[in-house]
């Protein structure tokens, strides 16, 4: 990649069961597991899921909180409330996600229209929770 525009590389979510969380994101968002076999074998501390070629979501076990020493107070970040993470999708992927969530009996919010985001007003958006209570917004623009 030669474009030097700032981008989000990864988001780290605290989860109680990284393997179950990986399965949830694979089945609902259609993400690809990253390092899942290595995590299950005890070779890496957490698995991830690939959102796109540039962005992953790390699924950090809450049991790792005591090892978070990169900054003062980092240990206390486990369970720290994040309002939500928003994923922008093409319209067909948005509809497919909504269908998979509803088919899996995952509660979703009502559909909103014209909510503001990084690319301006989104045509449609909705919210849902993962198994650990992390809130996600799904949206599409045009």
From TrEMBL:
Which molecular function terms from Gene Ontology are attached? dioxygenase activity
Oxidoreductase as UniProt keyword: yes
Query: What InterPro entries is this protein classified in?
Result: Glyas_Bleomycin-R_OHBP_Dase (IPR029068), Glyas_Fos-R_dOase_dom (IPR004360), GlyoxalaseI/FosfomycinResist (IPR050383), VOC_core (IPR037523)
- Every copy of the VOC domain together lies at 7-141
Keywords tagged on the record? Dioxygenase, Oxidoreductase
Source species, domain of life:
Bacteria
Residue intervals passing through the bilayer: none
Listed PANTHER family: GLYOXALASE DOMAIN-CONTAINING PROTEIN 5, GLYOXALASE FAMILY PROTEIN
Name used for this protein in its record: Dioxygenase
């Amino acid at each position: 990649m030669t474009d030097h525009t700032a981008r989000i590389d990864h988001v780290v979510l605290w989860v109680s069961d990284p393997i179950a969380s990986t399965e949830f994101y694979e089945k609902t968002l259609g993400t690809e597991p990253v390092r899942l076999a290595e995590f299950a074998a005890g070779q890496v501390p957490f698995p991830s899921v690939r959102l796109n070629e540039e962005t992953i979501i790390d699924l950090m076990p809450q049991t790792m909180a005591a090892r978070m020493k990169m900054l003062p107070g980092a240990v206390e970040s486990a369970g720290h409330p994040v309002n939500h993470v928003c994923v922008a999708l093409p319209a067909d992927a948005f509809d497919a996600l909504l269908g998979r969530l509803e088919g899996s009996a995952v509660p979703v919010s009502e559909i909103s229209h014209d909510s503001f985001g990084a690319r301006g007003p989104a045509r449609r958006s909705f919210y849902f929770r993962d198994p650990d209570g992390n809130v996600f917004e799904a949206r599409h623009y045009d």
